[in-house]
Amino acid sequence: MPFVLDPSLAGDTLFVSALPTCDLLLLNDARYPWAVLVPRVNGVSELHELAPAQSAQVIDEVLQVGRAVGDYAGVEKVNVGALGNIVRQLHIHVVGRSTRDPAWPGPVWGHSPRVPYQSGEDQPLVAHLKLALGHLISGRA
Amino acid sequence: MPFVLDPSLAGDTLFVSALPTCDLLLLNDARYPWAVLVPRVNGVSELHELAPAQSAQVIDEVLQVGRAVGDYAGVEKVNVGALGNIVRQLHIHVVGRSTRDPAWPGPVWGHSPRVPYQSGEDQPLVAHLKLALGHLISGRA
Fold first, then answer.
1. Would you state the pLDDT for residue B114?
2. Which residue out of A46, A91, A112 would a mutagenesis test of the B interface target, given it has the greatest number of B Cβ atoms within 10 Å?
3. Per the omega criterion (within 30 degrees of 0), is the bond before A105 cis?
4. Pick from B48, B84, B88: CB nearest A67
5. Which residue in B98, B20, B101, B33 sits closest to B66, CA to CA?
6. Contact: A66, B47; criterion CB under 8 Å
7. Which is nearest to B79 in space by CA: B35, B111, B46?
8. For the CA atoms of A102, A108, A114, A119, what is the dihedral angle to 10 degrees?
9. Which residues of chain A have pLDDT under 50?
10. pTM above 0.80, yes or no
11. Measured between alpha carbons, how far is residue A124 from residues A72, A119, A129, A133 in Å?
12. Which residue of A19, B30, B79, B105 could cross-link B117, Cys pair, CB 3.0 to 4.6 Å?
């Protein structure tokens, strides 16, 4: 059965790229450089439910996205979280935080409604991620 | 230099056991089965700053603790998070969530002050974790 992205996740995000095991999405919130990784596996809601070989690759991608987000302009701390209380499809948040962001030092989850990107406003971050993760993306659409 | 646990983390937690690479702590909040793993490495605040061999072992312990917490009575969802906005020493939260817990479906971080365990009240959870993770603990203090 082909992988199907949860409609709620799809509605809240912009597609960036397909990494080897995860789809790399951008949360459509201009206030934070906020990546979301979704392993292309149906029916899994917990990290520990992944097969060992899958989880190793997923975590490798999470760590590489974490490094890329951490290197983005203005990011002082990276927050990584797999919650899934509302959307059960396994997805991992990788959020670049700054002492000047609206939710600091609390978590971004549940803080306030998204502020969607204006047209083209997401491009610097998307370009940064694609450059930093090029070795994971090359040869893929 | 020997590993030193951040004093703020030490004050908020109860020591459970030393796993091969992480100290396993219990957040001293009786409302949630809430484990905290602290890799015994000084000066690291991001998961992606760990050496690859370290991060693989740390994540393995996180996933095994996640499975153990997920199997605990009443847990319906596991939340995993590495935030560190306030305490910079790398630590990974593994929180058992329930639709009946006070913060549901929001994150536990920043929700409300801890409600410490009464004497002995933490013992069922500690016993469960030690049993579930016995293969990681055996031979250690």
1. 97
2. A46
3. yes
4. B48
5. B33
6. yes
7. B35
8. 80
9. 141
10. yes
11. 10, 12, 9, 14
12. B30
Q: Which one of B63, B75, B88 makes the best mutation probe of the A interface by having the most chain A beta carbons within 10 Å?
A: B63
| Chain A residues with beta carbon closer than 8 angstroms to that of B63 | 47-48, 55
Put simply, the answer to whether A48 touches B56 (Cβ < 8 Å) is no
DSSP-assigned letter for residue B14: E
How many Cβ pairs within 8 Å bridge chains A and B?
91
pLDDT tens string A112-140? 999 999 999 999 999 999 999 999 997 55
| Mean per-residue pLDDT, B38-63 | 96
For chain A, what's the residue count? 141
Q: In which band, very low, low, confident or very high, does the pLDDT at B141 lie, cut at 50, 70 and 90? A: very low
Query: Which of B83, B89, B112 has the most A C-beta neighbours within 10 Å, making it the best mutation to test the interface with A?
Result: B83
- Residue-level pLDDT at A1: 84
Reported confidence tier of residue B1, pLDDT bands at 50, 70, 90? confident
Q: Within chain A, how many helices (H) and strands (E) appear?
A: 4, 5
ipTM score here?
0.96
* Closest chain A residue to the Cα of B99, Cα to Cα: A85
